[in-house]
Amino acid sequence: MKLHLKIKRFNPEKDKAPWWGEYDVDVEPTDRVLDAIHYVKYYQDGTLNLRRSCAHGVCGSDAMRINGKNALACKLLVQDLGTDHITIEPLLGMRVIKDLVVDMEPFFDHYRSIMPFLVNDEPLPANGRERLQTQEQVDRISEGTKCILCAACTGSCPAFWANGKYVGPSAIVQAHRFIFDTRDRASAQRLGILNERMGVWRCRTAFNCTNVCPKDIPITRQIAEVKNAILSGVIA
Question: Which superfamily is assigned to 2-102 in CATH?
Fold first, then answer.
């Protein structure tokens, strides 16, 4: 099938403002949007810049705005868009380095701020190797462990668009994973970090984050659970 791509371009070294590049490519309906972008990059305009790595929905590096909705270009099939005209833009709310490549460092600063690692200095249990959990305890945190840090959720958040200092939904999901981990001993500290002006309370429950998550994490629900944990002072 013939596909018309409209890609937002910007090279800060020579462009005063973003502009739209338009390209026609031949694809199969079962091709991914990433395949179409690659065709442009390899055969039509080698100056086009994008970020991607595994191309299999694992690394999360090719998150972008496709027909007005954030998605991983490597997971989205052309046929699932229901149109032969596709508009592609970089994630919103983040500084554009070039074309579809955005500056992810502020995003990862927020990620690091919530202490995304297990904290437990207690002596090892009797088995001397690991701190065991019940299946119920594992299930409590398993959804959040699916996060691949693609930033699709944060880049779709109106609160983040308004103020990039907001920690963002992805960082809160990462915090949730440890806050409710029975092995961790820094839950109160993380809740204190999120109980700030630019923490969890800046969320306005727009559900954009949940709707675009490529791993189907119930982000809005997890944010609500963190809010409830702060209000109740009880870690369940």
Answer: Beta-grasp domain (3.10.20.30)
